[in-house]
Each structure stands twice: as C-alpha cells, then as structure tokens.
Automatic annotation (TrEMBL):
Domain Ammonium transporter AmtB-like, first and last residues per copy: 87-502
Originating organism: Myxacorys almedinensis A
Protein name: Ammonium transporter
InterPro entries for the chain: Ammonium/urea_transptr, Ammonium_transpt, Ammonium_transpt_CS, NH4_transpt_AmtB-like_dom
Record's GO cellular component terms: plasma membrane
Membrane topology reported for the UniProt record: Multi-pass membrane protein
Pfam families in UniProt: Ammonium_transp (PF00909)
Family: Belongs to the ammonia transporter channel (TC 1.A.11.2) family.
Transmembrane segments annotated in the record for this chain: 87-111, 123-143, 188-208, 215-236, 248-269, 290-307, 319-347, 354-374, 380-398, 405-425, 450-475
Length: 529
C-alpha cells in the first residue's frame, strides 16, 4: 500500500505535467504512431513507412505538375490515337502471320505423309525468306514514290519518313501509305505478312514434286520483285489506283497474284506420277490427315479476321472494323455451305476437302469488297465462291493441272471473282470506308466500276503470268525444277530432307487409287525437268 506521503508526491508530479504533454498523450494520431513504433512487427512498420513516403511523393508531384493546356490535351489525345491504331494493326498482323500455321497444316494434311516434312519445311522457311526479300527490296518497290508502275527507293526500309504524320503533314518517300497514322515499322510489318501469304499460296500447288531449293529461290523472286510491282499499281499509288481500281484487302493483290504464280508453277512442273492414267483418266491421291487439314482451315478462318478488318489500318470509331468482320465471316460461312451442297449434288457425297475449300473460297472472294458491300451481298458473294470452287477443281483436273490442295481454284479463281464482285455489289462509302469505289452495277452505279475491276484483273494477271513464267523457265533451265521419279516415289521427306515426318510408321507404297497399269512402267530412273 502507498503511504500518505508517497500519494501526495504522485499527485504533485501529475500537477507538474505541462498542458501540451497532456494534449500529446491524448492525441489519437500520436497514440497510433506510438502503437506502430512499439507494438507492430518490424516488417509491418517498414511497409507502413514506405507507403506513407510514396503517398507523400505522389502528392508533391501532383501539386508540382503544370496545369493542363489545350495543346497538351491535344497532344495526349493524338498519342493515344496513334497508340491505339498501332496496337490494332500489329494485333491484326499477328493474326495474319498465324495464317502461316493454317497453310502449313492444310497443305500437309491434303498431301501424302511421305512428303509432310518437305511441306512443313517450305511453309516455315518461306516466311523467313519473305521477310528478307520484302525488307531488302519488296517494300520499297511497292510503296515508295516513283513512277505509276514501280517505286524507286526505300530499300532496306530506309529513306525520309515522318510517320505517323498523315495527309499534308506527311513528309517522306512512302506517300502511298500516308493515309494511316501509324509508325513506319507497323506499316511494314502488316504489309510483310500479306506478302508472305502470296508466296505460301504457291507452295500448295507445286507440292510433292518440286525441288526444295527451286521453291526457295522462286519465293524470293516472287516476294522481292513480282508481287511488289503489281502491288504498286494498286496499293502503292500506281496507275490502277489512279484509274479507280479498288481491292480493299487483297483478292487480286495477294490471292490472285499468288494463284497466277501457282498456276504457272504447276503447269511447268507437270502432274505427280500416277495422277493421270494413260487413257487420261484422273486418279485420286487422297491426303493423309484430314484432321490436320481441318485444323488448318479453322486457323485460316481465324486469321482472316486480321486479314480483312486489319486492312483498315486504324480503329476509328470501330464501326467499319465490325462491319468488315461480319461480311468476312458471312462470306466464309456461306462459301462452306454452298460447297457442301454442290459437292453433295455433283459428287454424290459431302466431300470434306470441298467443304474446306468452299470456306476458303468464300473468304478469298469477299476480301476485295468486304468494306464496301452489305452483309447479304457478302453472303451471296461467298455462296457463289463456294459453288465456283467445286467446278474449278474439276476443270483444272480436266486440263491436267495437278494442284494437290486446290490452291489455284481457291485463290486464283475466287480472287478474280471477288475483284469483279466489287464492281457488282459495291455500295460505295455507305459503311464508312473512305475512300470508296463507285456504286456497283447491281446498285445503280452502271458498268464503270466493274469495267475498271476487269481491266485491273487482266493487267495484274498478265504481268504475273509473264514474270512468273520467266522465273520458272530460268530455274528449269539452270537447276531443273522437279525431283527425279525415284525421289518422288520414295517421298521428298527422305530424298530432300533425309528424315521422316512419322518415324516408325509404315511407309506409303501406293499412289492413292492408282494401280500399276495407270502410269508408264518406265518411270523409275526418269528425271523430270
């Protein structure tokens, strides 16, 4: 117990405490800080102190920041628009790049397993070669300023350019692309994946009998020279663009050009051994894996949503992108359905290969007019494409153009159809495209737009056939473009690459439905040149 004397001393001590100390002791903030300092673990004390410091620094930075001005707001808005447009174009370009996987799977599945390694190798290496050729020379020939027929500069992606400036503010040598406000690198990448697609189309038509080295050389020449020259006429501000020719995403620029080059390659190579009997009858040589082929078709369908909508090369308010996605999907769907029905009626069965090619035919056909036609028009364009492709496959077979995957029927025939369809179904700038073609023949615009579409189709086709033929003839004379009969029989996987695609599986020894009586008996040892 406390004595009376000690109790008095404690009372006097309390009375000596200053009023300020009493306030501090009773202040809840001080008590909280004291609690933090004495009661919390060191880790918690450190976290709280760091958080407080960051908050104080941010507060100071916000207070020290200059007030927004009209110029700064405008610059920020411009930067955001450029960033958004660039991101959209790059993502669309990635989708188009992924189409390489689709072509790879489609072609491999449609062909025999003994050639699968060769096909996979071609489709993988071709984009690497396309990158080199388009960067070194192709992009400059296609998009730099020059004559109405070809560009004169911009090789190795060099030259004056102040992208993303547009219209009159643009200063540089790539004025054909001054309508899109994205950096030059984004412009190049998006156009590169299109160029690679054109070269990949050729691979399918010449599959199972072309020498690997010849295909690589031809791909370099196509992407570096032929494709850019005709592309300059249309997308590079050349004479066809000045005449009013329109091809929004490449039915002619990409697909028909690749198709024409593929047609000439298949013609110069000749058919595969056993494809045609001595009496002229065509023998089926079925593909080895329709599951992989179907996967490839689905990848291509997905990639087309970058191919067509991405060709806006800007976001805008998004309405044009959405419209193009709808027309693209609708045409592909109706193409697949129309080909299914047509094959069922004509061939007696709903052939899966025809369903796949019908889908691709519809997508190719709508590629040129996708921004200028309505959804019902896209459905009709796609359906006609699906019907055409079934008969086109039979036609080329009848004239002994051996195309293992139907690349010529899909890309050439429907590239032409889609380009002409623009002149029939165009509704001008109704859906937000600017610039836009005149109204099509079926919508009161007369024959004018259809006429220029026909002139462009014939001109691009004629030039591509000429240049491609020169390339194929030169390669045939210098290197020989076809493997020997023995190499073809054993398969290009072994003869060209020294490996198997399906190691450990039984090797194929037949020629589809062909028999020993369907082809000459002296093929062994024969060299095709």
């Amino acid at each position: 117990m406390l004595s009376r004397t000690n109790l008095k001393k404690k009372t006097r001590n309390r009375q000596r405490i200053s009023p300020n100390r009493t306030f501090i002791t009773r202040n809840p903030v001080v008590r909280s800080l004291k609690f933090i300092a004495t009661q919390l673990a060191p880790t918690w004390r450190t976290c709280i102190l760091l958080t407080s410091a960051i908050f104080l620094l941010w507060s100071y930075a916000a207070a020290a920041q200059q007030p927004a001005t009209l110029d700064s707001v405008a610059q920020t808005t411009t930067d955001l628009r450029v960033g958004l447009d660039t991101m959209w174009v790059m993502v669309a370009g990635f989708l188009v790049f992924f189409m390489n996987a689709g072509f790879c799977m489609l072609e491999a599945g449609f062909c025999r397993e003994k050639n699968s390694v060769n096909i996979l190798s071609k489709n993988l290496v071709v984009f690497a070669l396309s990158t080199v050729a388009f960067w070194a020379i192709g992009f400059g020939l296609m998009f730099s300023d020059g004559s109405p027929f070809v560009g004169f500069g911009g090789f190795f992606l060099t030259g004056v350019d102040n992208s993303p400036a547009t219209a009159d503010a643009y200063q540089g040598i790539f004025s054909a692309l001054n309508w899109t406000g994205i950096p030059l690198g984004a412009k190049f990448f998006f156009q590169l994946v299109f160029a690679g697609t054109a070269a990949t189309i050729v691979s399918g038509a010449v599959a199972e009998r072309i020498k690997f080295v010849d295909f690589l050389i031809f791909s370099l020449l196509l992407v570096g020279i032929s494709y850019p020259i005709t592309g300059h006429w249309i997308w590079g501000g050349g004479w066809l663009a000045a005449a009013g020719f329109y091809d929004f995403a490449g039915s002619t620029v990409v697909h028909a050009v690749g198709g024409w080059a593929a047609l000439m390659g298949a013609a110069f190579l000749g058919p595969r051994i056993g494809k045609y009997a001595t009496d002229g009858r065509s023998n089926a040589i079925p593909g080895h894996n329709m599951g992989i082929a179907t996967l490839g078709a689905l990848i291509l369908w997905l990639g087309w949503f970058g191919f067509n909508p991405g060709s806006t090369m800007g976001v805008g308010n998004g309405s044009l992108i959405a419209h193009i996605a709808l027309t693209t999907n609708t045409a592909g769907a109706f193409g697949a359905l129309a080909a299914t029905i047509t094959a069922w009626v004509v061939l007696g069965k709903p052939d899966l290969s025809m369903i796949i090619n019908g889908l691709l035919a519809g997508l190719v056909a709508v590629t040129a007019p996708c921004a200028f036609v309505s959804v019902p028009s896209a459905a009709l364009i796609g359906a006609i494409g699906g019907i055409i492709v079934v008969f086109a496959v039979g036609f080329f077979d009848s004239i002994k153009i051996d195309d293992p995957v139907g690349a010529v029927s899909v890309h050439l025939v429907n590239g032409i159809w889609g380009t002409l369809a623009l002149g029939l179904f165009s509704q001008g700038d109704l859906f937000g495209a600017d610039p836009a073609p005149a109204l099509g023949l079926l919508f009161g615009g007369g024959i004018g737009q259809l006429w220029i579409q026909l002139i462009g189709t014939l001109s691009v086709g004629g030039m591509t056939v000429l240049i491609s033929s020169i390339f194929w003839i030169a390669l045939k004379a210098i290197l020989g473009i076809r493997v020997t009969a023995e190499e073809e029989m054993v398969g290009l996987d072994i003869s060209e690459h020294g490996m198997e695609g399906y190691a450990g599986f039984a090797k194929e020894t037949t020629l589809g439905s062909a028999t020993q009586h369907d082809f000459p008996s002296d093929i062994v040892g024969k060299t095709y040149q």
